[in-house]
Amino acid sequence: MSRTRWLEVLTDEQIRQVHRSSLEILEQTGVCMPQRRLLELLRDHGAWVDFERQVIRFPSSLVERALKGCPSRFTWHGRNPKHDFRLGEDKVYYLGASTLVTVYDLDGTRRPSTFADVQRFSRLKDGLEHVHDGYGAVHPQDVPEPAAHCYQMIGQLANSEKPFRARMFGRRVSEDCLRMAQIVAGGEAAFRQRPNLLAVVNTVSPLTNTPEQMEALIVYAEGNAPLFFSPQIQAGATGPVTLAGLLIQMNAEILAGITAAQLVNPGCRVGYGTTSGIMDMRHGLMPYATPESALINIATAQMARFYQMPSRGTGGFTEANTLDMQAGFETALTTYVAAQAGINIIIGAAGSLQNALGASYAKFVVDNEIIGYIERMLAGVDFTPEAMALDTIKAVGPAGQFMTEDHTVRNFRRELFRPKLSNRAAFTQWEEAGSKTIEQQATAEAERILREHQVPPLPQEVERELWKVVRAAEGRKA
């Protein structure tokens, strides 16, 4: 089918303005990168470095050279090749929310997240056809904290064949995550050829990074893991309240990170992303489900296409505290806009409530259906001779019917989106069937998937090696 055109909010000249203004910020103001090796590496390649303040000012020529070395496309691999992500093309991938701390359970209770939830969310997502990653959604709070990242990794690796993500909390955490990914891939060399892990660098705006994020950048860049740079600017708090200013600052922070990564490992896989939004001046927090966040996502996709690299954005988030109408319309709107903008990876597209703090089993299933609806819309209208159906229209003629035509039988399953949860029955039929709400149906479907869906197990030797990494991390001091 012919894909619809991407949404755009920036003109070509405005895109160039963002680029030029960002280079000006990088040359005249700079970015803080508090990691000695990066400071020295950038100095050796012509950057102006203030070692006392740990601030780097970037010559435009250095940034431009780094951008030329970035691959425009690459693959993020799943344990099963049928789940591989081909990034930098037109395909949109929908990922679940991550590192949440509260669980909305299937019995209606709300509680802290556990390692069992990591495993169950990964298996649920593996069984949802429109959710494309296997990340375990929550932070396990019932395990030793020094090893929580390892439990997160083994929980998703053992319960999903889809691609997974890593943690970015310093050198040791990153080395553990990378090592576990390499074990599953078949070794370091195999991982370099088929990386199955992706890491996301979030700057501490304005124009600052943490030592832990910079250490992680080095580990993952050297290991050849894909890196997406995604500032989390809050308009009016950690960045300009005006969206044009926010986009310029965001672009400067991204280009600084990409330049550093390309110097650590020339040609490494990088992507252009955002988690930026606004500061709600009334409540003093950062809401995700806002029209401004939607506009930032659209602009992010445009800037990524300008630099010819894959894009990452947000969608699916809601400030609702329960699975209600607010959760539905905020999730649908934010995910649709990001998808229609052409964002390659939409993180948060499924499963979250409570302003990205709570994970809901039922909402993952509801959001899976929303994504299916969006995917059908993005597929557009097929105009092949078979789809145009001229011969069928002529054969049926005036006052005929198409229900029994071979053309209908051949095409209706492919052409028409068929929801699993949304009610299309008349009121009396719905009432006779038990008057079930969509939350009740989603809960039942989540229970069925968790009961019936089987994920091929990891080889025993692989699982043993993974647990060795977990046990070593458990032995460290917090």
What would you say this structure looks like, in words?
It is a single chain. With 478 residues, the protein is α/β, with parallel strands linked by helices. The chain folds into 2 domains: 68-379, TIM Barrel (Alpha-Beta Barrel), CATH 3.20.20; 385-415, no CATH class. It is 47% helix and 12% strand. The chain has helices at 12-28, 36-44, 60-68, 115-126, 148-157, 171-185, 188-193, 211-223, 243-264, 291-307, 325-341, 361-379, 385-388, 390-396, 406-415, 427-432, 438-452, 460-474; strands spanning 31-32, 48-50, 55-57, 74-76, 85-87, 93-96, 102-104, 110-112, 164-165, 197-201, 227-229, 234-235, 270-273, 277-278, 311-314, 345-350, 352-353, 358-360. The strands form 5 sheets. Strands 6-16-15-13-11-10-9 form a 7-stranded parallel beta sheet. A 4-stranded mixed beta sheet has the order 8-7-18-17. The chain has a 3-stranded antiparallel beta sheet with strand order 1-3-2. A hairpin with an 8-residue loop joins strand 4 and strand 5. Helix 10 (291-307) runs parallel beside helix 11. The chain is globular and about 80 Å long. The termini are far apart.
Give a brief rundown of this model.
By secondary structure, the chain is α/β, with parallel strands linked by helices.
Question: Which key features would you list for this structure?
Answer:
single chain; TIM Barrel; 478 residues; seven-stranded parallel β-sheet; alpha/beta; 18 helices
SSE blueprint:
Layout: H1 12-28, E1 31-32, H2 36-44, E2 48-50, E3 55-57, H3 60-68, E4 74-76, E5 85-87, E6 93-96, E7 102-104, E8 110-112, H4 115-126, H5 148-157, E9 164-165, H6 171-185, H7 188-193, E10 197-201, H8 211-223, E11 227-229, E12 234-235, H9 243-264, E13 270-273, E14 277-278, H10 291-307, E15 311-314, H11 325-341, E16 345-350, E17 352-353, E18 358-360, H12 361-379, H13 385-388, H14 390-396, H15 406-415, H16 427-432, H17 438-452, H18 460-474
Parallel strand pairs: 6-16, 7-18, 9-10, 10-11, 11-13, 12-14, 13-15, 15-16
Antiparallel strand pairs: 1-3, 2-3, 4-5, 7-8, 17-18
Helix pairs in contact: 1-9, 3-9, 4-5, 5-6, 6-8, 6-18, 8-9, 10-11, 11-12, 12-17
